[in-house]
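Example 9 (inverse folding). The structure is encoded as follows.
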């Protein structure tokens, strides 16, 4: 099929029709696409505009807290709360900006050969610092199994999965990260012994702002956008997110990469690292 009008987007669907025949149905989705574009631009612009004033407010609050005698003891608690809330707003704005950038499909970082071992070590350190010794965290990785992709994006996706495991696992719980082959694919999995998720929520977790327990997410510094961001990053890498969980019995979140994304170092090279 050739199409010459760039202002019209058609969605085509081939459906069975009669005996051994197929019907091609075209739906004009130009208007929908335009609205979607406007929504994305609006969110990106609002987030961008909010960033500067918020940075100024946060900066002055910090200065006041650090300035001797500027904040009387009786009101220090209120100032602390204001700092906490500006921090939350800042995280939210950063996540909204990241999401609209990912959704726009622009500025796609180039694929490179990723040093998976150092990436996993960084993620491990971040998890330990977030957990602050309150969980037992372990890592098991196939050192010869490499990956191609955008290093910063994958760091953010893996880091987010692990930070969720820490945030939704009570003190004393276990978090186990694994990077290894799974059939012809490879998976980075994060198992936790945390609170778990009821089955009915699982399919909706990657929707923007979908949270099983709003107050718990807020308490632990969540924005409700983490899994949407992860899903976009993985889709860009032709990878998928798999979630297995049972309420009260922990969860496993896996980022599964296809063969086309994998590289295999010779054992000799892997051992030298
Ligand atoms: P949030 O910032 O709220 O954590 P996410 O998009 O990262 O947002 O996750 C969406 C929701 O999925 C969370 O609010 C939480 O209810 C649930 N969730 C994510 N990871 C886990 C986990 N490891 N264990 C239990 N629940 C989780």
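The amino acid assigned to each position is listed next.
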């Amino acid at each position: 099929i050739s199409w010459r009008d760039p202002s019209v987007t058609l969605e085509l669907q081939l459906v069975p029709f009669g005996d051994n025949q197929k019907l091609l149905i075209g739906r004009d989705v130009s208007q929908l696409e335009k609205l979607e574009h406007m929504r994305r631009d609006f969110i990106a612009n609002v987030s961008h505009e909010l960033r500067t004033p918020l940075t100024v407010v946060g900066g002055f609050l910090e200065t006041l807290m650090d300035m001797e005698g500027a904040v009387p003891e009786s009101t220090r608690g209120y100032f602390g709360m204001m700092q906490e809330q500006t921090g939350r707003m800042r995280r939210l704005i950063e996540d909204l900006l990241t999401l609209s950038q990912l959704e726009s499909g622009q500025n796609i970082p180039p694929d490179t050969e990723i040093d998976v071992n150092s990436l996993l070590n960084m993620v491990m350190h971040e998890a330990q610092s977030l957990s602050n010794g309150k969980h037992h965290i372990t890592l098991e990785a196939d050192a010869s199994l490499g990956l191609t992709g955008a290093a910063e994006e994958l760091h953010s996706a893996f880091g987010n999965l692990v930070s969720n495991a820490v945030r939704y696992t009570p003190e004393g719980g276990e978090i186990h990260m694994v990077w290894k082959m799974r059939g012809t694919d490879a998976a980075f999995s994060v198992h936790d012994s945390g609170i778990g998720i009821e089955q009915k929520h699982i399919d909706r977790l990657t929707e923007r702002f979908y949270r099983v327990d709003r107050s718990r997410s807020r308490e632990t510094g969540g924005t409700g956008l983490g899994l949407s961001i992860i899903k976009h990053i993985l889709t860009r890498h032709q990878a998928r997110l798999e979630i297995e969980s049972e309420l009260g019995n922990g969860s496993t979140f896996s980022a599964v990469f296809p063969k086309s994304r994998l590289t295999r170092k010779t054992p000799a090279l892997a051992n030298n690292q």
